[in-house]
């Protein structure tokens, strides 16, 4: 019975052309990666889809630090943090990040998590008690949405980046604890949330500001400390979640907040308490990653990323001008997430397939992940891309457009 039930559901997904396909990589994360194709053969692909924005996942120092960490700490942590899994490696990572965020969050402390998904569940489900209320941007990441569903607090959704609507909602709220929740860089649009305005509203309405800096950490700010450094924000009202699986090139996550908030999360966050602490070897390697990220390597790579962004936007902008009748649009993004909004699901998937046939992997994103009529290519850039990689992408899009016109 269960199998029949599931077959029906799988068929329904397939009929809407929404089946997601798993692809196996046969070489390490990199812009040039061997990916197994449907006929079972590994093929070199030019990738525009990973979140390894600084290219640190394949940096030799990271592999070396991981090996070193494994020599020192061997395998697993053996238990959750509060039982016996918390090691010196976790403590050093947390202390290091605490010092990074001290200028932005008075009396900052940091708690480490195994993934960003779990860190977001921790913050939302623990702080969103029955006396609280959430104010959530409609384009927030799935992990924040899931966490708010788990929480007791009701959720008021506001239109994307709509500060005026948020202000009205806050003004009419009688909740004792008000929690504004927003991504810093929105994952499917690449735009930045209006963080200074959100913080201003938090101050005016005695609210707290939960920020998910998954795509900003390592990418934004002179030293890569993320959105708080970029906007030069400082407030004890900020509760920042960052992931270490994207620009930091490894895995893990953290929450940075005033020490009172962290003390409570340790006691109440179920995704902190009831899960095995992450590998200490990974925490050891993360310290090396943070060195790279804030130092000369990170600074040079962030500059290169900006140059790639400019090159891509110029090239796609020209291409869209020449083909204005297509009605495609380049999203107004100043980050490594550069969506090309095509509109229809079909055209998006035809374009993505044409690029795949030319040896490039650029995922098409369709509803319900994005609004109906706004299907898009989600192009992500990494500092390990070269100018000629971008040229190849531009040429392949041009060729695909001509073939689609001819068809
Ligand atoms: C990737 C992502 C997460 C989840 O982080 P993981 O460490 O991959 O679990 C959370 N929020 C946003 C906005 C993300 O893009």
UniProtKB/TrEMBL annotation:
Detail which positions bind substrate. 20, 141, 369
Q: Which PANTHER family match?
A: 8-AMINO-7-OXONONANOATE SYNTHASE, CLASS II AMINOTRANSFERASE/8-AMINO-7-OXONONANOATE SYNTHASE
Q: State its Enzyme Commission number(s).
A: 2.3.1.47
Q: Which UniProt keywords apply?
A: Acyltransferase, Biotin biosynthesis, Pyridoxal phosphate, Transferase
Aminotransferase class I/classII large domain ranges (all copies)? 47-397
Please give the SUPFAM superfamilies that the UniProt record associates with this protein: PLP-dependent transferases
Per UniProt, subunit arrangement is: Homodimer.
Q: Which Pfam families match?
A: Aminotran_1_2
Amino acids binding pyridoxal 5'-phosphate: 116-117, 187, 215, 243
Pathway named in the protein's UniProt entry: Cofactor biosynthesis; biotin biosynthesis
* GO MF annotations, alphabetized: 8-amino-7-oxononanoate synthase activity
| Name of protein | 8-amino-7-oxononanoate synthase
Q: Which cofactor does it need?
A: pyridoxal 5'-phosphate
Q: Which family does it belong to?
A: Belongs to the class-II pyridoxal-phosphate-dependent aminotransferase family. BioF subfamily.
- InterPro entries, from UniProt? Aminotransferase_I/II_large, AON_synthase_class-II, AONS_Proteobacteria, PyrdxlP-dep_Trfase, PyrdxlP-dep_Trfase_major, PyrdxlP-dep_Trfase_small
State the function annotated in the UniProt record: Catalyzes the decarboxylative condensation of pimeloyl-[acyl-carrier protein] and L-alanine to produce 8-amino-7-oxononanoate (AON), [acyl-carrier protein], and carbon dioxide.
N6-(pyridoxal phosphate)lysine, modified sites: 246
């Amino acid at each position: 019975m269960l199998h029949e039930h599931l077959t029906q559901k799988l068929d329904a997904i397939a009929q809407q052309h929404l089946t997601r396909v798993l692809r196996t990589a046969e070489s390490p994360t990199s812009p040039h990666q061997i990916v197994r194709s449907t006929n079972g053969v590994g093929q070199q692909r030019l990738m525009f889809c990973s979140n390894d924005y600084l290219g640190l996942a394949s940096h030799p120092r990271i592999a070396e630090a991981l090996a070193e960490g494994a020599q020192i700490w061997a395998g697993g942590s053996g238990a959750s943090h509060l039982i016996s899994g918390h090691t010196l490696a976790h403590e050093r990572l947390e202390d290091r990040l605490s010092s990074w965020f001290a200028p932005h969050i008075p009396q900052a402390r940091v708690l480490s998590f195994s993934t960003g998904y779990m860190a977001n569940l921790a913050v939302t489900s623990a702080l969103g008690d029955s006396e609280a209320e959430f104010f959530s941007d409609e384009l927030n990441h799935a992990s924040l949405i899931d966490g708010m569903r788990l929480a007791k607090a009701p959720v008021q959704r506001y239109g994307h980046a709509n500060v005026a609507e948020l202000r009205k909602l806050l003004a009419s709220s009688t909740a004792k604890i008000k929690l504004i929740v927003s991504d810093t860089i929105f994952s499917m649009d690449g735009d930045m949330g209006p963080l200074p305005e959100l913080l201003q509203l938090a101050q005016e309405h005695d609210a707290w500001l939960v920020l998910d800096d998954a795509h900003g950490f390592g990418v934004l700010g002179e030293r890569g400390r993320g959105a708080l450094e970029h906007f030069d924000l400082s407030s004890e009202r900020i509760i920042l979640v960052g992931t270490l699986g994207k620009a930091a090139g490894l895995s893990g996550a953290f929450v940075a907040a005033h020490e009172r908030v962290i003390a409570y999360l340790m006691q109440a966050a179920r995704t902190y308490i009831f899960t095995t602490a992450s590998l200490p070897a990974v925490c050891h390697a993360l310290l090396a990653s943070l060195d790279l990220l804030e130092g000369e390597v990170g600074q040079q790579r962030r500059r290169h990323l900006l140059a790639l962004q400019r090159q891509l936007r110029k090239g796609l902008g020209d291409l869209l001008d020449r083909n204005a009748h297509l009605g495609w649009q380049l999203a107004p993004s100043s980050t490594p997430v550069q969506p090309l909004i095509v509109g229809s699901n079909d055209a998006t998937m035809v374009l993505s397939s044409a690029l795949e046939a030319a040896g490039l992997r650029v995922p098409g994103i369709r509803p319900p992940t994005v609004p109906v009529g706004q299907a898009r290519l989600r192009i992500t850039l990494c500092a390990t891309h070269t100018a000629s990689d971008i040229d190849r992408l531009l040429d392949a899009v041009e060729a695909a457009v001509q073939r689609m016109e001819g068809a």
